[in-house]
């Protein structure tokens, strides 16, 4: 016997379309709430909105959708939900284990300046939420016990055993040859070749936005080097120009599922 207030599975096409629109809005809102929690702006994960969203997904799976466009729209929404739920669950496990990459990156930058082991007060000062400070600090202290540390390499490993002293120690005598590390002419950095369909200024601006996006996520160590991005674009841009029948492109930086994405679009004239 159906309970009072149970979901009505007999929906018209307009009703299905309205419900899918509501689910898309709720999913986008839930995604923003989780990102706020991961960044430390919220104390607790949004469990109640997630349970509600999960209930709506289960209910819609029992609704017969005859329209092909609406059926495809729901399938796409289902795939997005599975991907988001997987990402949220993985990140929550990392937070509980004290291995969340944003927290680790903040700590590494801080300890690179002073060394030692981080305390709970320092972790809080770095912006790590109070709800996950204890687990994070405990794991970091276990990992940095004297018995767990990797001993540093001997200082003599890179010191030459014999041979002439460095040129800098010879008093700069004439005819002694070039220095070990030649200075760049005029102090300028070596320039990369121009990319097809993209000005050097636009590439530099896009790469700076790419770095800024990683910095905001606390993932600087995962950012691609400029030379590697330049090499990839050099291979991909000719294909994009030919496919889109255009002669100029613009680069867009976006953050999706906690990752920084780089896209190329035809530039408006």
What does this structure look like?
The chain is mainly α. The protein has 3 domains: 13-97; 101-148, no CATH class; 200-266, no CATH class. Helices cover 51% and strands 6% of the residues. It has 8 helices and 2 strands. The protein has helices spanning 13-38, 47-60, 68-97, 101-114, 120-125, 133-143, 200-216, 226-244, and strands at 249-256, 259-266. A two-stranded antiparallel sheet has the order 1-2. A hairpin with a 2-residue loop joins β1 (249-256) and β2. The termini are far apart. Mean pLDDT is 74; it is low at 1-6, 150-178 and 181-188.
Short structural description:
The protein has 269 residues and is mainly alpha-helical. The protein has 8 helices and 2 strands; from the N terminus they run ααααααααββ.
Keywords:
269 residues, mainly alpha, 3 domains, two-stranded antiparallel sheet, 51% helix, disordered N terminus
Question: Which helices and strands occur, and which strands form pairs?
Answer:
Layout lengths: L12 H26 L8 H14 L7 H30 L3 H14 L5 H6 L7 H11 L56 H17 L9 H19 L4 E8 L2 E8 L3
Antiparallel strand pairs: 1-2
Helix pairs in contact: 1-2, 1-3
Give the domain tally.
3
Q: Uncertain spans, ≥5 residues at pLDDT below 50?
A: 1-6, 150-178, 181-188
Strand-pairing-aware structural class: mainly alpha
Order of helical and strand elements: HHHHHHHHEE
Portion of residues within helices:
40-55%
Count of runs of 4 or more consecutive helical residues = 8
- Per the principal axes of the C-alpha atoms, what is the gross shape? flat
Taking all Cα atoms into account, the compactness measure Rg is 27 Å
The strands making up the biggest β-sheet line up spatially as: 1-2
| Measured distance between first and last alpha carbons | 64 Å
Mean pLDDT: 74
Largest sheet features: 2 strands, antiparallel
Q: Give the strand tally.
A: 2
Strand content: 5-15%
